[in-house]
Structures are given as C-alpha cells and as structure tokens.
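Hi L., both proteins are below.
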Amino acid sequence: MGSEPGRPARAAGRAPEVRPVRDSPLTTLDTYDLRFSGWGGHPVAAWLLLPSQAEEPLPTVITYLGYSGGRGLVTDHLLYASAGYAHLVVDSRGQGHDTPDPHPDAGPHWVHGYMTRGIEDPHAHYYRRLVTDCVLAVDAARSIPHVDPDRIVVQGASQGGGLAVAVAGLAGDGIAGALPDVPFLCHVRRGAETATEGPYTEIVDYLRRHAPHAAERAFSTLAHFDGVHFARRATAPALFSAGLMDPVCPPSTVLAAYQNYAGEKDIREWPFADHAGGRGATAVEHLRWLRLRGLAPTER
C-alpha cells in the first residue's frame, strides 16, 4: 500500500457532495446522500446520518461494510446517529449498487468473489482500491461541518472490521478510535487454511486450480492488505471483538491482528459465538467504550 496510499487519489479528488434524502421517513434524524472521491478519483457513495437539528460538531462514527454488501437503505443504519453521533456509512465499490468499480479486470485466473481479483499483482488487486476508498472516507468526513475532526472513530464487522484495522494503520492521527468486530482480512493465510465458510474459501478454490506454483505469489499479494501488518502501524485506541466459534473469521486470525495492534487496545471474546459475534450486545459494548474514552456526544 505504501506510506501514503491516498496521495494519488487525493490529487484526483473533488470536494464531497452532500444532498438531503428528500423522501426519508425518519423524523429524529437528518439523512444525506454523500458522494466523495475514492481511488482514482472515482465517486464513492455513502450515507450521512445526523441527530435532527444538531448544531455543534459531533463525534463521528465511520462504518465500513461486510463482504458483498452495499450501503443498503438509510433505515438500515440507525444506531449511532440515534445515540447522538454523526454517522457515515461507506459503500463498498463493486459490492453495493451505488458505487461501481470502474476497473473490473480481475486477471486471467480469478475465481468468484473479490479475494482473487487481481491476485497476481498487488497493484491490481481489488482491495487496493477499496482500502484507499476507506482511508479517503476519513478525509471526506473531516470536511463536513457537523463532524468533529478530532473525534472520528472507524467501525465495521467482518470485511468492515478488517477495513477499520487497515484505516487505523494508515490514517495515523486522523482517527481517535477503532471498533473492529470479527475482522476479516487478518492473517489471511491462516484464514485460508482454517476457515470452513467463505470468503477465505475463495482463495482455497483458486489454489486448488493453480497450486502449488500459485500459492506464494497469491499470499504475497494478499499480504499487502492483511490487517496484521496494518495493525502494527496503528496508534488509535481500539476495541476488538471475536466469536470463538466463528467459521468465517476463525478467532486465531482475529487474535493475530489484536496481538499485533500497536495502539491501546481491548477485546471482547464471545465464547459460543459464530460470525455474528456478540450480536446486539456488541452495540452496548461500543457505546460504553466510546463514553469511557471521552468520545460520546454531549448530552442535550
């Protein structure tokens, strides 16, 4: 990824565009369609949700999404704004309906999904573009008047958790905290060796067709986007979570990123949980942790 993955994209970018969602059924939240420049200057869609009539700059949560999911409907994302935060929900290029990936060339040997798109060259891999989008979402958030630029937290589960770890490692002092839940894209080789459900199994399918000669090149490419390496660069405090019976992101992969995370950190381990982790209890842990870190909104 390099030390400044967003630099070329920043040069190609434009100021974010924010438009009210005119037909929103929500009465206690103000909702906006946000478009900002991502990798290559490509437009990336996001939702922005704010408590109604908010005036002062707010602590802000940026959410990255799970694998193969887009930003969906604005009504899918009510928690953080309802708790008084500004909330930015970032679409995943090519995975949602609102953000296309203008560089779909996956190389000659990819299999289904996104893990093997460009797997023979880290410069061409899909996650180079998506991780850059996610870093630039922090830039976009900082330009919004209702966002307190000193209290931005990145959050996500599964793929979104892995992206939160990546941004924590790449954004430096640009964020105040990270909330990666059951993060994907961490210790990728271990995930391919032990996960019994996708998306790591996409790598296995690829290697069954092209192994043994393709394995080292594939994992060399994927190492550029591995959360273990990003975690070593992270300085913001973080709260991780892991499901100890997770077949998608095995707990050993999550713990590898957690143990290598350089910033202040804590983790919630859910002993009998699958990939859903702590389910609704996770949100309670998030809000409590944010308040203890001084990242909660001022009570009205």
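That was the first. Here is the second:
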Amino acid sequence: MNIQLPTSNDEKDDDGKPKRTGTLWTASAHIITAVIGSGVLSLAWAMAQLGWIIGSISLILFSLITFYTSKLLADCYRNSDPVSGKRNSTYMSAVKSNLGKTQIWMCGVCQYAILCGTAVGYTITASISAASIHKSNCFHKKGHEADCSISYSIFMIAFGLIEVFFSQLPDFHNLSWLSVVAAIMSFTYSLIGIFLSLGQIVSGKGGTTTLAGTVIGVDVTSMEKMWHAFQALGNIAFAYSYSMVLLEIQDTLKCPPAENRVMKKATLIGVSTTTLFYMLCGCLGYAAFGNKAPGNMLTGFGFFEPFWLIDIGNLAIVIHLLGAYQVFSQPVFAIMEESAIRKWPALRLLTKETTVVRSTSFPIKISLFRLVWRTAFVVTSTVLAMMMPFFNDIMGLLGALGFWPLTVYFPIEMYMNQKKIRRLSGKGIVLQMLSLVCLLVSLAAAIGSTQGIVVNLGKYKPFQAKS
C-alpha cells in the first residue's frame, strides 16, 4: 500500500519495497490504537440497552468472532506459501488474489467508506472530549451555575488542523511512534473511566441495573427499546473493528519470522487486551450509571470534582484519536496516491518530494500532491463531522456497515478458497452459518443506528451543536 522512494538493493524486500522493520510490539501497538478507540466510551450505554446477560455475552462473542476471523485474514497476506508467496499488502489485493475481480468492488466500497466514516466519527469524538475539558474548567473557575456551553465546531476545526500536519507522514512505516503514544493514551482514559466507575460504585452512588437493561415504560418505550438494542450491537461491533486495516498493519512486519505467525500473536495480544478493558469499562460503567448510562462514558461523571482527573481522561482521548485517525486514514491516502501514479506514471508532480528537515532519525519530506489531496480529505471529514455530530448513532452505523463484510464475510470466503473447503462440508456449513448470523446482526444494527440518525437530523441545525 505504501508509495516509497527508490533505495539500494540491500535495503529492499522481496517485492522491491524498502525493508520492513515492524515487530510483534509495533503491530500490537497499531492494533490497540485501532481497536481501543472512541467505541469504548459507548460500551456502558450499550450495556444499559442490552442488560447484564445479553450485553456481557455480546461483548465476549464479538471479541471471539473478531479474533477468529482476524486469524483467517492474517493467512491471506501471502498467496500459497506463508513465507515466499506473493504479498497482499492491502485488503483489496487479498480479495483480488483469493476471490477474483468480481468481489473487489464490494470490498473497496465497504472498506474505504468505513475508513472515511471513521475519520468523521473520530473528529466528532475528539471534539466532544475537548469541549468537555473546556466545560469542566469553566465550571471550576466560574461556578456550577455558569453558562459554559461552547460550539463543537471550534474543536473540530482545531483537530482537523492538527490532522493536516500528521497526514503528511508518508505511510504506516512512519506511524509507529504515533501509534505507541496513542496506545498509551487509550490505556490512560480507559483506566480513568474504570477507576471513576469503581469510585462511584463503592461510594454507593451507582445506578439501577437490570438483567435486561432499560425498562420499557420506565426508561424507554417498546419501540425505543428495540431501536436502542439494535444500535447498541452496532456500537459493540464498532468497538472491535480494525479488520479493514489488518493487512496494512501486517505489511509493516519484517520477515523472518513469517508475517502471519507474528500477526496472529499481535492479534491475540491486541484483542485480548481490548476485551479486558471493554468488559471492565462496559460492566463497571453500567454498574456506575445504571439504565441512565450516557452515550459517552466520561461525560457522565459530570464536569465538577475531580475535574482534573476527568480532564486528563478527555485529553488522553483527544491525543489517542489524533493517532487513530491516521491509522484508519493511511489506507485511503495510499490507494488514491497509488491509483494516481498508475494512471499518470510520467507526471513528476505525483512523486516529487522536497526535504524540509534533513534529519537521519526523523527526516521531514513534503510532496505537493500529498499536501493538497490529504488536506482536502481532512477538510472534508471535518466539515461532515460538523454537520452530523451524533456520537452514538454514527459509531453504531459505522460498526454495523463494516462488521459483517470486512470482519466476517471476506475473511471466511478467502479462507475457504485458500484451504479448498467445500461449502457443503461440515466446516463449510459452520463457517457460512457464522457469516449469516453476523449478517443479520449487522443489518439490525444498521437499521437501529439509521433510525437514530434520522430522528436526530429532524431536530438538529447543522454547525450549531454545543456542549
């Protein structure tokens, strides 16, 4: 997926690209950065809609499905031989190699729509957290009765400006440091949410919880219960989504050892770590807030004391999303730039780079084409976020649209093709049944999230949302 400048032969891999240097730990950092994102903040709300039984089971099942299908997808990085086979450095390349050209369009539309949508979702989330910092400090200085509301648009613009700078990093190979920082931040705000929830529970201020979640006639109507339950499934699916960048992450790994073996270990570390945090955040958050759990976990603790700790948590979210935005956007940047170079190979404007900072450890190079196109992408995602700042609905819709095709359907289909598994064999039937069940869950989640967006659009004025 990466556009590289020419290097000497001893610095090249078997496909002519510069030597890959990624390790188990850099891949794990990328995965944790991609998985533990804004989705963790909505898990307490999701638990409140589903209840203790279905909510807990859903968190575990989505985790197991994601881990299993990610292992199948990791085996699709190379064709035939796991060490010397042709590399598939992108998701679409793997689909083309294993399933043929007919399914590439479906894959491309799903993958890149979700990647672009995630950029919008992360801009929304970062602005909500940044606005919360402003609000808590305002209350602390002016008193709890002060009018401390502020437009989200200001923070979305600021987030976009920073992303314009980070977007000039050429590819995933330049993102390891950013992913490590982002992964540390994700642990930070998750732990803060967990300890704040524990503190609220221990102090006896926990909310009312039930086995089935929100109560019809008390908390919600019967129709709201259904829509919110569907949307909650989408939120959980989004929380585990990273399959659309799995092969791009795997393409950073050095060989030997075989990339698929390292990636499976990284997936185990990443998914098991995130599942632990998700269970703690979801269950403790639900216990702390009960059936009144907010859509964004950290905003539910109020804006008062300990205001500094909540500020740290929200700041960690913003820093994390600065890195996560890039992890999900780099594949979009790469596919557009590679397509342009293939179409106009003689146009030097597409490949010419100017070195701004000549540092051996961290050189900074600028490409005019990269500057213009990537800036346009960031501006577009920022404007869309300003138009539709609906946190839970957007998260649920993205999760619903991406979960079945990218996390389940394509990995299973490619695995069955590689291993020559017959559809009517025992294993083939089980795999197809798994795919069918996940399709139904994704459809339900998409319907619930779309309904929520439609309702919110009916009473919302664009660019005027405030904290």
